Amino acid sequence: MKHQGIPALAAVAILAAGCGGGGQEFMPLEPGLTWIYHVSADPPAAAKVQIKGAARVGMTDGVQITGDLGDSRMAWRGPLLRASMLGGTLYDPPLPVLDLRGEDLIWEGIVIHEGVSWPATARLTTCDDPVGPAADPLKLRDEDLRCSRWEVTVKERTRTVTTHFARGFGIVQQTVTEDVEGSPKQTGIHLITGPNLEAGTKVETPEPPTPAGS
């Protein structure tokens, strides 16, 4: 079952992958690798995603990623991670989602969702937001993290996606913020288990606070 808590525009920017080299130290890349994430949505859920095989991303060899958050196609082109599909939504040309050089990038193209296309723009920047406490068991150092933020605007509606990549683990955290009926709405994911976790290490989902007076 595909979870709808993460909007389709962002859904599987959660896995960075590709056959073009680049930042694979920040995303282990082997067919069959699997990640399980906690989805902070209503209701909360666990989502499994997996690298299934090869796919074309523009003119670059990349990978197909499938799972509970929808299908994605991603590839590295030098230091730049790009996606031609995220959560079943197509991007032409491929959308940049991480630049290891730390440069700000502007994208213009077409977004295609359920057979309907719209012109769209996007801006990719680096960020220094701290990773959340759910990642504490990973004992990550600052040099082991890369944070990217991309804002995609379609039909005057903007969605902001902030993603933390960790060396050896891939994506450990992602938040999606968008305006819904005049109010900001935020959903997100964080890693429960994935490749290269030490034996006995488990990233737990924090318990919600106990309501006052209970």
Comma- or semicolon-separated keywords:
mainly beta; YmcC-like fold; twelve-stranded antiparallel beta barrel; 53% strand; 12 strands; single chain; 0% helix; 214 residues
Textual characterization of the structure:
The chain has 214 residues and is mostly beta strands. It has one domain: YmcC-like fold (Beta Barrel). 0% of the residues lie in helices and 53% in strands. It is built from no helices and twelve strands. A twelve-stranded antiparallel β-barrel has the order 1-2-3-4-5-6-7-8-9-10-11-12. The protein starts with 33 loop residues before the first strand and ends in a 21-residue tail after the last strand. The C terminus is likely disordered.
Topology summary:
Elements: E1 34-40, E2 45-57, E3 60-67, E4 72-77, E5 80-86, E6 89-99, E7 105-113, E8 116-126, E9 145-154, E10 157-166, E11 170-180, E12 183-193
Antiparallel strand pairs: 1-2, 1-12, 2-3, 3-4, 4-5, 5-6, 6-7, 7-8, 8-9, 9-10, 10-11, 11-12
